Fold:
Amino acid sequence: MVDTVLFLLLVSAAAVVVTGPGAETVDAPADETAELVTTSTTTVEYEFGEGPTVPRRAHGTYAGLLARAAVANATLDSRHIAPTGPAFAASVRERTAAVIGANVQLSARWTLYPRAPVAGQVTVGPDPPPWADVHVARFRVPVAVPTTESRRTYSAIARAAAGAVTEGMLPGDSAELPLGEGPHRDSVSHRVDVLAGTAGELARRHAGAGDVTAATRVATEELAAVLATDLRRRFESPANATNAVRTGTATVVVRRWDR
Structure:
């Protein structure tokens, strides 16, 4: 069902044509690559953890895996939130590059809102030549980060967005955190450390003790404060800010040009 909806979105984009110097023409139905990445599935393998690693597999459409890779590759203050995110993104890039042509670029970007401090991106393929006529398809793909509802104040918007990020990036409660040392515990500790910012030491202590619920609460509060400040700076009103927030989807862009 999701694949069908995504392809219908591609078809509906055909009516949008941008003209002018350097403009990109949207011609989604003619782009067989767009259909390929939204309907074809594959499996990628990657290593989870640092030091002793655990082999993992992920299965899905190429578009879905690109969207997941964008989330996995997300950074905050130039630090990767998921320590193994780059490895997963590299596996997705390698597998996707094997099925697209040399005249195609695919990119997926996940961000809370334009120029947000939390964002991730993955790109496959070269940039199009400056002389090329480029055909573009853009569509959104759901990701494992909750979608937020409209809020009336900057602080409420920030709390909702921060809660979505921590819910998507961290275990739901302490019961999901395995006892003992290992790649999963190390990954959770790293994530709460990055998301908690200045309160990272406190969050790490909670995570180290196995109380991921308390660690998540600290991370959410600290991230919400960062986002509230940024939202006030970027948007003229809370209404504009809440309309811009898109936590639950990544944007996938297909660019194709004549050789």
